[in-house]
């Protein structure tokens, strides 16, 4: 029997199928909700490649398969986001999309709370203006 402490957020979320659902919903919201227009403008018209890259990143970040690192190396999140002007407004738009996507994705409340805190800290770290 697996110890509870060794269960990753990736596993608690439900693995690839639920992670893909979360990523797709996140980008669906970003690409359609006018409240996310600031961050939407930072993305290409074709969201397919960034959806796949974000899926790979979250898989690794949540303790699942290390797809992002295998394909692209260390995430270097801040460096990868430096070309984009990210302030509180952009951070909050990103979080609005993610929190809404999480709300629409089936998960335990404790996992949702954990992820909201982790996503906030990570998004806040991306600010560069």
UniProtKB/TrEMBL annotation:
Keywords: Heme, Iron, Metal-binding, Transport
UniProt-listed InterPro entries: GlbO/GLB3-like (IPR044203), Globin-like_sf (IPR009050), Globin/Proto (IPR012292), Hemoglobin_trunc (IPR001486)
Gene Ontology MF: a single term: oxygen carrier activity
Similarity comment: Belongs to the truncated hemoglobin family. Group II subfamily.
Record-given protein name: Hemoglobin-like protein
């Amino acid at each position: 029997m697996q110890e509870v402490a060794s269960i990753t957020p990736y596993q608690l979320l439900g693995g690839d199928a639920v992670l893909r659902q979360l990523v797709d919903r996140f980008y669906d919201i970003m690409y359609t909700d006018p409240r996310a227009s600031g961050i939407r403008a930072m993305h290409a018209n074709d969201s397919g490649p960034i959806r796949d890259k974000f899926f790979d990143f979250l898989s690794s970040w949540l303790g699942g398969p290390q797809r992002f690192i295998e394909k692209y190396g260390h995430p270097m999140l801040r460096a990868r986001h430096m070309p984009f002007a990210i302030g509180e407004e952009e951070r909050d738009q990103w979080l609005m999309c993610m929190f809404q996507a999480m709300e629409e994705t089936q998960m335990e409340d404790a996992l949702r709370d954990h992820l909201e805190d982790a996503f906030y800290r990570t998004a806040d770290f991306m600010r560069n203006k």
